[in-house]
Amino acid sequence: MPVDYFYIRDDRVNYYLSVGGSETKTVYYMVRAVSKGRFIVGPASADAMYNPELRSYNGAGKVVVE
Fold first, then answer.
1. Alpha-carbon span 20 to 61, nearest angstrom
2. What range(s) does the Bacterial alpha-2-macroglobulin MG10 domain occupy (predicted)?
3. C-alpha to C-alpha distance for 38 and 62, rounded to whole angstroms
4. Is the dihedral of CA 54, 29, 24, 20 positive or negative?
5. Cα–Cα distance measured from residue 43 to residue 60, given in angstroms and rounded to the nearest whole number
6. C-alpha neighbours within 13 Å on the C-beta side of residue 41
7. pLDDT band at 1 (very low <50, low <70, confident <90, very high)
8. Is the pLDDT of residue 6 over 70?
């Protein structure tokens, strides 16, 4: 899925993209570990800009970097 714009910060990446139709869309991203340890990962979130009823929060968990 093409991304219209993205904004990279130290602790997150914001993606802005256009979606249409009723089919399911999937967005993948990759992260790079820079420190060893155990971390809690918050969920990825997606919100429709003009329709607050359309949203998704998914993927929270734990990560161990050795």
1. 29
2. 3-53
3. 7
4. positive
5. 4
6. 16
7. low
8. yes
pLDDT of residue 41: 86
d(CA 38, CA 57): 22
Write the CB contacts of 22 (distance below 8 Å, at least 6 apart in sequence). none
**CA atoms of 50 and 57, how far apart (whole Å):** 17
Tens of pLDDT, residue by residue over 7-63, are: 988 888 888 888 777 777 777 777 788 899 999 888 888 888 888 888 888 889 999
3-state SS record for the chain: CCCCEEEECCCCEEEECCCCCCCCCCCCCCCCCCCCEEEEECCEEEECCCCCCCEEEECCEEEEEC
